[in-house]
Fold these 2 entries.
Entry 1:
Amino acid sequence: ASAGSGNGSCIPAERAALLAFKAAITSDPANLLGSWHGHDCCQWGGVRCHSRTGHVVKLDLHNEFVQEDYASFWFPGNHSLHGQISCSLLALPHLKHLNLSGNMVLGDGRPIPEFMGSLRRLTHLDLSSLNFSGRVPPQLGNLSKLVYLDINCGRTSDMMTYSMDISWLARLPSLKHLDMGGVNLSAAVDWVQTLNKLPNLVVLELNYCGLNDYYSRSTSLLLHNLTLLGELDLSNNHLNSPAVKNWLWGLTSLKSLIIYGAELGGTFPHELGNLTLLQTLDLSFNDIKGMIPASLKKVCNLRYLYLEVNNIDGDISELIQRLPNCSSKNLQVQTLGETNITGTTLQSLVNPSSLNTLELSFNHLRGSVPVEIGTLTNLTNLSLKFNKHTGVISEDHFAGLTNLKEIDLSYNNGLAVIVDSDWEPPFNLQLTRLASCHLGPQFPKWLRSQKGIVLLDISNAGIIDRIPYWFWTTFSDAQFLNVSFTKLVVSCLLIWTSCQWKYFFSSQII
Ligand SMILES: *[C@@H]1O[C@H](CO)[C@@H](O)[C@H](O)[C@H]1NC(C)=O
Ligand SMILES: *[C@@H]1O[C@H](CO)[C@@H](O)[C@H](O)[C@H]1NC(C)=O
Ligand SMILES: *[C@@H]1O[C@H](CO)[C@@H](O)[C@H](O)[C@H]1NC(C)=O
Ligand SMILES: *[C@@H]1O[C@H](CO)[C@@H](O)[C@H](O)[C@H]1NC(C)=O
Ligand SMILES: *[C@@H]1O[C@H](CO)[C@@H](O)[C@H](O)[C@H]1NC(C)=O
Ligand SMILES: *[C@@H]1O[C@H](CO)[C@@H](O)[C@H](O)[C@H]1NC(C)=O
Ligand SMILES: *[C@@H]1O[C@H](CO)[C@@H](O)[C@H](O)[C@H]1NC(C)=O
Ligand SMILES: *[C@@H]1O[C@H](CO)[C@@H](O)[C@H](O)[C@H]1NC(C)=O
């Protein structure tokens, strides 16, 4: 077929361009290019041609194994294409969609090639997790049709790529999705003003960009242009500014606002109540002081609230009264660890039965744990560790907790878990931390049913007993067992060798 012959079969010049691309790839462990042979390049894996003209319009060679590569940190790129990104891509003049993401070694520490800025028809460019470094080419600003741009470098905290001046972004007015996570933008003084020229943005990810707010703070600019923005992530930056009087609170279309670890100070802004569409709010690991604003009550769609490691320094019942309860979709996740909250009970918590995560660790909560906690039927994750709770936890506290997977009641002021010896728990735990709770003196029989336990910490739990015969089989899949400061008599050491425990702490196995 000659150029433009139609029928979606491959155009020879474009086939040649793809073969040149392939020739610059030195290794392809995931066999992404395995089907790149034969005449019709439109049939090759990852290639899509226009059905009428036959021009290549899409090249998607993203690496599915990127998550795995993240996990095996020291062996990045096990599945990645190796080699160079050939500028033969320029001979694909109708290319609209280019995705090379997740090929962790393809960038090989080089800058993003400048020729990318000449792929004029691109609407979708995903170069995330390619291990680029150096300057982001401002030539990308020539891609005036771009709707989607992702140059998140993957291991974001490394900040190997940078852009001193992001004014080129303003030439991409169609952008809806922009992810520059891990690109060092610390020298980009006017980043807020530049972003304000992208009125179509729906998703904006600027996690680990070294952003500082020093330059834009004084203007207290409200981002009136970003009326469609639904997701904003500014985490791990040096905003170093008060949370109040911030342009952020003008972004009333936000559904997700994630700004953890960004050096926000001062108090919580009342304007939070203007963000009525918010479903996710993460202001954790900042330095915000004082009670959450009463206006938060208006944020009816809030499902995920993360505030840990701030200094709320108030009573939990007041806090709970300020949480929204105006819709059927109630809060699912509430993390308030290390927020300096006080209070005598958790009594007021008992309404939101939609909760699946309740994290209140490292606070100053006192008194007994209310039995109503057992009505939180959707709870999977409960942490009350390092508080000052006292009293007894009984079967009734666990009565409705059929979905509980993780519990941490460690290091309170003498919390006791006292249940009948024939009690059958309604849950199947995975992580069980009950350090310094009173469980003894007998070894708790209810643990026998918890065969899915990965981690068990019952150290210093007042147990003085013979290790039950079922201990070794029930916990044979566990990876972490801590029974130190208990007095356990081992009755059969032989079975020990069949276990796969990675960590076993025990000070007094007799
Ligand atoms: C398109 O393909 C059909 C058969 O699949 C063929 O008959 C026709 O000639 C082709 N047209 C062109 C322009 O190549
Ligand atoms: C592309 O962008 C660069 C840098 O922004 C600019 O110097 C150059 O003239 C542009 N090229 C074209 C063909 O527009
Ligand atoms: C980010 O860039 C600034 C200069 O613009 C530089 O001083 C700083 O060291 C860079 N940060 C990292 C983590 O490379
Ligand atoms: C809003 O965006 C337009 C371009 O789309 C720009 O001309 C204008 O200056 C922006 N407004 C503000 C307040 O930045
Ligand atoms: C935002 O909230 C503040 C304080 O709660 C209020 O005065 C202001 O009118 C609100 N703005 C909008 C646009 O709703
Ligand atoms: C907790 O609040 C008290 C005042 O109630 C204050 O003195 C203390 O510094 C706060 N702790 C932290 C870690 O902020
Ligand atoms: C919502 O909270 C208010 C104040 O905390 C309370 O009076 C009201 O009963 C709650 N409404 C629902 C539906 O739970
Ligand atoms: C509990 O979780 C289920 C499944 O996710 C959900 O359908 C149900 O609405 C939740 N219950 C409450 C009270 O939110």
Entry 2:
Amino acid sequence: MTASSNPPQADESLARLVAVRSRVASAAKAANRSASDVHLLAVSKVQPVAKIRALYAAGQRAFGENYVQELEGKVVELADLAGIEWHLIGPLQSNKTRVVATIAQWVHSVDRLKIAERLSAQRPKSMPPLNLCIQVNISGEASKSGCAPDDTVALAVAASALPNVRVRGLMGMPEPDIGAEATRGQFKLLANLFNEARSQVPSMDTLSMGMSDDLEIAVECGSTMVRVGTALFGARVTS
Ligand SMILES: *Cc1c(COP(=O)(O)O)cnc(C)c1O
């Protein structure tokens, strides 16, 4: 089947996926890293399920959502897609942990022990352990979520003792629009914390950092999972 026999949506999704993968591959090469060490999480928040289906058809399996209610709806609507993997990347309140523990494979936004404890207690025993990343406030902005850099290692160690979760790594977001040098500085802070934490928590293998506009810098600084929305789906249209 030639590409031109696909519906336009499928062609566009495939082209965007190929372009993002090639950006990741070039960045990995420039950093003397293997492209296969950098996983791609497609951030599908606010995007219609038809676009998720098109990207899935193009080969993408891991999708990230920010809002629990939207995640819930999409998990149900897309239950027919075998092997699809759901990551919650947005803030998580205690009263929403139960549903997340039941439907997600990953949570990137754990910022305190209480959330990890609830997720572990509420994870169904019939499911594999829930993969967790500790979100770190690397920008230092008071408005941003995440635990303080100084508390990160202790939180990772404490969460790693819980039975039904697996601490996989750290997640962080730099302050927007601060330029490449300052962005690099905030990514390096996260990478250093990651190296420190994983010397005590051997299950940690994931450094979740980098988005559409800064994935090259993130890969240069050691990212193993970039979270890409706009570059894969086009602009988010909100009403
Ligand atoms: C929206 C979002 C992304 C993706 O951002 P883009 O700039 O669209 O690639 C990544 N991570 C988090 C936590 C987000 O909220």
